[in-house]
Amino acid sequence: MQNTPNPLIPRRDYLKWMGAAGLAATGVSGHAQSAWPNKPIRWIIPFAPGGTSSIVARGIAAQLTKQMGVSFVIDNKGGGGGVPAMQELHRAPADGYTIIMSHIGLMAVNPLIYPDSGYDVNKDFVPVTLLSRVPSLFVVHKDVPATDMKSLIAYVKSRPGQLNYASAGNASAGHLAMEALKLATGMFITHIPYRGTGPALNDVLAGRIQLFSAGTPALLPHIKSGAVRCIAVGTTERIPVLPDVPTVQELGFKDFETVQWYGIHARTGTPPEIITKLQQECAKAVKSPEVVAQNAAESAIPGGGSSAEYAAFVAREQARWKEVVIKGQIKPG
Predict the structure, then answer these.
(1) Residues 106-109: contacts with CB within 8 Å, 24+ apart?
(2) Each residue of 300-332: b (16+ CB within 10 Å) or e?
(3) Which residues pair with 267 in a beta bridge?
(4) Contact in structure between 75 and 109 (CB atoms under 8 Å)
(5) CA 199, CA 48: separation in Å to the nearest integer?
């Protein structure tokens, strides 16, 4: 049956009504899509507050809130290696109003050690953008009598299994960095997982834990105060904020590299235009003076690239860390 204009309805209003009816027939709201976002966006952080992920997220969230006119609400959901946080996103509607801070553990390691998580990181989630790559630092408590990597290795090997290192949780960036260092150096150190960098760092600062690896944002203040001593950095080159600290590669461990990275993933099925808009807004945010200054202060490398670029980056990381997971016998905590 052909639709004909009702003579009692002005033609302009009739066409508007017919357009709305057509969208309704497909279950799509033109207003809902064009108006995104029109309410706060929940940003799940899969660790307890106080760590690098939270610090990176707060800086970006402040800029996105300013740019987009809606609040980006940080929701810390620590524990379980980040699996509960990912499951929560998996249950959320694919509407762009729930996103997650994705990182090396969630995307590159958990698929290997949590095969029964109930989701597939490459099929059930879509990459939005890489936000930041943060140097990994290796530190010891100030009372540990080691001033460089050589003396640390000697100290640990004279006490095999007696020293502990903390991490933000199983399969966290710090856990992987320390396991990579153990494999490279032959040190035997016991892993003590926590529910985030903040809780782990508290015990490191208190002297209950001897070694730790985390990103520059969480550790720099404590290095500067003298509470912990930075032995080495995991980047391929020395970093500007700690120019006197050597890289692990410099110390004779060829091809060693550990860098923490943070990005955003959303639910698969989220409209492509929403993914594109969020990516574009993030690219703008990382170029803001506030975030540029934060990255410079922490020797972090900003992201902001496309969804496809982030997908390719994650794929490379998944391949690179598989060997560490297998050789380090990393298991669910």
Answers:
(1) 106/46, 106/82, 106/171, 106/265, 107/265, 107/314, 107/317, 107/318, 108/314, 108/317, 108/318, 108/320, 108/321, 109/171, 109/176, 109/321, 109/325, 109/330
(2) bebbbbbbeebeebbeebbeebeebbeebebee
(3) 125
(4) no
(5) 8
Structure confidence by residue, pLDDT tens digits, 215-254: 999 999 999 999 999 999 999 999 999 999 999 999 999 8
Cα separation, 166 vs 247, in Å, equals 21
Number of other CB atoms surrounding residue 180 within 10 Å: 23
Nearest to 229 by CA among 216, 243, 256, 211: 211
Q: Provide CB contacts within 8 A for 326, sequence distance 6+.
A: 112
* Joined tokens for residue 22: 């057509």
Length of the chain: 333
Report how far residue 60's alpha carbon sits from residue 281's, in angstroms, rounded to the nearest whole number: 10
Cβ–Cβ under 8 Å, residues 322 and 171: no
| Alpha-carbon gap, residue 296 to 36, rounded angstroms | 32
pTM of the full structure: 0.81
Q: Where are the alpha helices (DSSP H) in the chain?
A: 11-25, 30-34, 52-68, 83-91, 104, 110-113, 149-157, 173-185, 197-205, 216-225, 272-286, 289-298, 307-327
Joined tokens for residue 279: 């990516």
Query: pLDDT tens for residues 6-28?
Result: 444 444 443 444 444 443 433 44
Mean pLDDT to the nearest integer, 255-273: 95
